[in-house]
């Protein structure tokens, strides 16, 4: 494999100074994993992107999470928890989804420019990667349970099979994922709706009984503040799902006068809108588990396959088992291809900054899946509530800090109006977002472990969200936004186009004009290019990230670096 971090020894002008390994150089598989997604690649319609993104939320972890919350804290507290978490996730997801779709950037690149800095966002890459492998393990466990129920396959073998089955799809990237989501959607919709239709006819009084359900742990049917706080914390563990939605939304086409209504609706639906379906699934999963509780017992009622079978039995009889198993397997494949894909993006971002190497996104699929498989073999499903409750403290501190920057800091003028993600212009760490997240998550985790009393423990996620939302603008104001840009980003005499990856608006054709990177000698659109004093010319964002020998001259001494006169761009042809 070609060493992607160090220059090759080929004679000058015969080869580029850096050549990428075959897999890393194939953007049809890479999907611009570490880059701005160029307009030339964003060829899907808004509805196509939204449909693919929403196809990825077919998972049944919502069923297990909702059932766990209601079984533990009762219906009233559980309902309030699920709805409150949904409102928080929806509101914080709106600005993030719009930023990712507008600028063609994934969650990691947005986080860099939204208050965390170039190396500060490495921690959030780990947080996001952990989200993907935790939920891959959870979804894989549910699929293995279905296989065990259907054909008696040992769950340990099922864990391995559920891991291996997604690799060929994820290996091929966004195109393959879009096809899988589209082809499997009819089966998923039928499987999702049918159990509730059956129960509406066969058990019409079940909803009334469910409304007075007091749980299985003695919580009672009344409202409990402690139960509400703890239940909300578990439901908020899903807040990082906006990152997986963003991995699709970055391929949204440019917003124009002709498509702006469809564009806005698609971004809203596929971004924060996922949680509306998610909250409905949590309540629906809790209801199915409640109906099946007497027949299968608490342990199996929390496993989505068993309630599905019980609900379908009155109409399908002996066919209920294979029908339910098919639905569960399809659902879990739909989400786990997304988990594996997003995890590979996150690990790529993390290791490219730490090691200055990029062998290709696809290699990190195996790392993510190995960790997920280990968690499955350790039976993480048994510790679901505690694990997710702990994780949500960190996840919400991160997401709330990013949302605060996008909504407050940028409007107040403490943060640049656009999202700057390139190493050449960013400080290593920005205390506004990174500091806010670090303080908020530390305090909330201490509260989660009971250091500040019972109520603080129950409401630790609210502490995390509140501190992050307050501290991010406060630190940005106190530092006067100093740590957002290490030097001005001025290319061609004007900042990059706000609508497509950089500063004040200019014509889209100016943004889509390409510059040839002085190192890899590949043409990239303007938002992916930095002016480099070491190379005395344009440098693509990935070559900039992988340079281990430049000493960050441009950032440490911007005055000495001086402006770089870049060559005239190559305008795209009409055919492109």
Feature tags:
disordered C terminus, globular, 26 helices, two-stranded antiparallel sheet, mainly alpha, disordered N terminus
The spatial strand order of the largest sheet comes to 1-2
Q: Kindly provide the radius of gyration, computed on alpha-carbon positions and rounded to a whole number of angstroms.
A: 24 Å
Major sheet characteristics:
2 strands, antiparallel
Tell me what portion of residues adopts beta-strand conformation.
Answer: under 5%
Please, what is the average pLDDT? Answer: 85
How many β strands by DSSP?
A: 4
Q: Shape, please?
A: globular
Helix content: 55-70%
Structural class: mainly alpha
Number of helices: 26
User: Can you write the helix and strand succession as a string?
Assistant: HHHHHHHHHHHHHHHHHHHHHHHEEEEHHH
Low-confidence stretches: 1-15, 492-509, 562-576
């Amino acid at each position: 494999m070609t060493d992607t971090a160090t220059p090759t020894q080929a004679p000058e002008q015969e080869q580029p100074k850096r050549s990428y390994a075959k897999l890393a150089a194939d953007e049809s598989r890479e999907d611009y994993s570490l880059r701005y997604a160029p307009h030339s690649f964003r060829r899907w319609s808004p509805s196509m992107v939204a449909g693919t993104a929403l196809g990825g939320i077919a998972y049944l972890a919502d069923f297990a999470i909702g059932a766990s919350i209601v079984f533990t804290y009762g219906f009233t507290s559980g309902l309030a928890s699920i709805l409150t978490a949904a409102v928080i996730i929806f509101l914080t997801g709106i600005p993030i989804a719009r930023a990712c779709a507008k600028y063609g950037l994934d969650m990691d690149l947005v986080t860099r420019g939204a208050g965390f800095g170039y190396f500060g966002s490495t921690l959030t890459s780990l947080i996001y990667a952990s989200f993907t492998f935790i939920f891959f393990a959870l979804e894989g466990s549910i699929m293995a349970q279905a296989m065990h129920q259907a054909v008696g396959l040992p769950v340990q073998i099922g864990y391995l099979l559920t891991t291996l089955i997604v690799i060929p799809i994820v290996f091929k990237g966004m195109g393959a994922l879009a096809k899988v989501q589209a082809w499997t959607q009819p089966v998923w919709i039928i499987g999702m709706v049918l159990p509730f239709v059956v129960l509406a006819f066969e058990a019409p009084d079940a909803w009334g009984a469910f409304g007075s359900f007091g749980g299985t742990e003695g919580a009672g049917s009344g409202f409990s503040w402690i139960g509400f706080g703890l239940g909300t914390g578990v439901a908020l563990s899903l807040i990082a799902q906006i990152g997986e939605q963003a991995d699709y939304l970055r391929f949204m086409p440019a917003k124009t006068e002709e498509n702006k209504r469809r564009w806005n609706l698609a971004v809203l639906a596929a971004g924060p809108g996922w949680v509306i379906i998610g909250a409905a699934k949590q309540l629906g999963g809790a209801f199915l588990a409640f109906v099946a509780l007497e027949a299968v017992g608490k342990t199996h009622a929390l496993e989505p396959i068993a309630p599905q079978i019980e609900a379908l039995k009155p109409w399908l009889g002996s066919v209920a088992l294979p029908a339910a198993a098919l639905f569960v397997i399809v659902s879990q494949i739909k989400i786990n291809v997304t988990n594996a894909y997003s995890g590979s993006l996150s690990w790529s971002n993390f290791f490219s900054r730490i090691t200055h190497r990029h062998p290709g996104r696809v290699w990190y699929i195996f790392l993510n899946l190995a960790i997920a498989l280990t968690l499955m073999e350790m039976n993480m499903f048994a510790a679901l509530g505690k694990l997710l409750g702990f994780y949500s403290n960190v996840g919400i501190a991160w997401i709330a800090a990013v949302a605060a920057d996008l909504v407050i800091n940028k409007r107040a003028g403490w943060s640049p109006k656009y999202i700057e993600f390139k190493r050449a212009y960013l400080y290593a760490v920005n205390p506004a977002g990174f500091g806010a997240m670090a303080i908020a998550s530390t305090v909330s985790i201490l509260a989660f472990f009971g250091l500040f009393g019972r109520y603080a423990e129950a409401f630790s996620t609210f502490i995390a969200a509140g501190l992050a939302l307050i501290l991010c603008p406060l630190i940005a104001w106190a530092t006067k936004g100093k740590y957002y840009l290490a030097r001005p980003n001025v290319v061609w005499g004007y900042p990059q186009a706000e609508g497509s990856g950089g500063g004040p608006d200019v014509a889209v054709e100016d943004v889509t004009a390409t510059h040839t990177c002085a190192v890899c000698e590949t043409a990239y659109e303007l938002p992916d290019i930095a002016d480099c004093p070491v190379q005395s010319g344009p440098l693509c964002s990935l070559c900039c990230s992988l340079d281990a020998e430049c000493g960050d001259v441009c950032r440490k001494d911007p005055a000495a670096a001086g402006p770089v006169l870049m060559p005239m761009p190559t305008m795209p042809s009409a055919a492109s």
